[in-house]
Design a protein that fits this description.
Layout lengths: L2 H18 L4 E2 L15 E2 L4 E3 L6 E3 L5 E3 L13 E3 L11 E5 L7 E6 L3 E4 L3 E3 L12 E4 L1 E2 L8 E5 L8 E2 L3 E6 L4 E3 L3 E3 L11 E3 L2 E2 L8 E3 L7 E2 L3 E6 L4 E3 L3 E3 L11 E3 L10 E4 L2 E4 L13 E8 L4 E8 L31
Antiparallel strand pairs: 1-2, 3-5, 4-6, 7-8, 8-10, 9-11, 12-14, 13-15, 15-17, 16-18, 19-21, 20-22, 22-24, 23-25, 26-27, 26-28, 28-29
Length: 347
């Protein structure tokens, strides 16, 4: 080979070797929230790239520059991009808010309770700059006018107010001029639909003359009509027990409240044996008069034949009827009193 040709090949080889030994870098892989805009597909060794975060993300401290090395790899960066947060919103009076988070692109949905109207945005979003898209809304009460007043009646408001506008929940108590009676809602209020609740009526109410009760009496004998809330008292004859209220009242419906009843006494229906009454024992022949009042309790004695012992069983007088327990056996006159269930050892 000619010397000139050999020298030319050596020179070309020297120029080619350092260029082909260097490797290019591809587009760097970025972490969450980092900005991809402006990045090339291929970089040469020695090229530097300044990393940045997308809108809505905040860079942490650390190196933001990476360099393409001769091996075709990027140097490491400590840059991390954290999602920006918005301030936690205040609670909504008379309403509710629904949220999952308060970071960038999070949303809050607002609703108001019944009787309140949403003033403002029903949904707000956390923006890239850490601010909410809108201020929190407010829940304002529904507005009503003045309440309807029944004829011959009035309303006493819960609190004083001026003007001719009321708001949801505001209310008062209705009253009728005597002797009229209030029929309907005793209270009224501004409701969620912007109207007042249905007002009552003021009417004259009377009840017919009260009637007697069996085995009892009324404390007054004025056979007349009675007005609303007038009362009549009852009592019972001797040995009868009043079951129910002593007093009845004329109701706003024009009816009397429930009358009491007089319950009859009972006779203890045995001829021999002992009974237990008011914590005392009596031979039935000595129990005079043979009578207990309604709802009172006595006990008779029964025999446990297997154990040969006696035991007391209670029974109650119910309006003249006293059931003797089935276990009680009427002893014959020939038996010794000391062998009766009341006199032997008790079970």
């Amino acid at each position: 080979m000619a010397p000139s040709l050999s020298l030319l090949l050596i020179c070309l080889l020297a120029l080619y070797t350092p260029v082909t030994s260097k490797k290019e870098c591809g587009r760097p892989s970025l972490g969450d929230g980092m900005d991809l805009e402006g990045l090339q597909r291929v970089y040469s060794p020695g090229d530097a790239v300044l990393l940045s975060c997308k809108r809505g993300y905040t860079p942490t401290s650390g190196s933001r520059t990476i360099i393409c090395t001769a091996s075709g790899h990027w140097t490491k960066s400590r840059l991390k991009c954290s999602t920006k947060s918005c301030s936690f919103p205040e609670t909504l009076d008379h309403g509710d808010m629904e949220l999952v988070d308060i970071v960038y692109q999070s949303t809050i949905n607002y609703t108001c309770h019944e009787g309140y109207i949403l003033q403002g945005a029903s949904t707000i979003e956390c923006l890239y700059d850490g601010q909410w898209s809108d201020p929190p809304p407010k829940c304002t009460p529904v507005i009503c006018g003045l309440p309807p007043i029944p004829k011959y009646g009035k309303i006493v408001y819960d609190t004083k107010f001026t003007g001719n506008i009321t708001v949801f929940g505001f209310g008062g108590t209705y009253e009728c001029l005597p002797p009229l009676v209030l029929i309907g809602n005793e209270r009224g209020s501004c409701s969620a639909n912007g109207d007042w609740t249905e007002p009552p009526e003021c009417k004259m109410v009377t009840c017919s003359a009260p009637t007697d009760i069996h085995n009892g009496f009324m404390t007054i004998h004025d056979k007349r009509e009675y007005g609303f809330k007038e009362t009549v008292r009852y009592g019972c004859n001797v040995d009868y027990v009043l079951d129910g209220p002593v007093e009845i009242e004329c109701l706003k419906t024009g009816d009397w409240s429930i009358k009491p009843a007089c319950r009859a006494p009972c006779k203890v229906g045995i001829t021999r044996g002992r009974i237990l009454y008011n914590e005392r024992t009596f031979w039935i022949k000595d129990f005079e008069p043979n009578k207990i009042l309604h709802a009172e309790v006595i006990s008779v004695y029964c025999m446990n034949k297997e154990k040969k012992c006696g035991y007391a069983v209670s029974t109650q007088c119910i309006d003249g009827k006293l059931k003797i327990p089935e276990c009680f056996e009427e002893p014959s006159d020939t038996l010794d009193d000391n062998s009766l269930p009341a006199e032997i050892a008790q079970c």
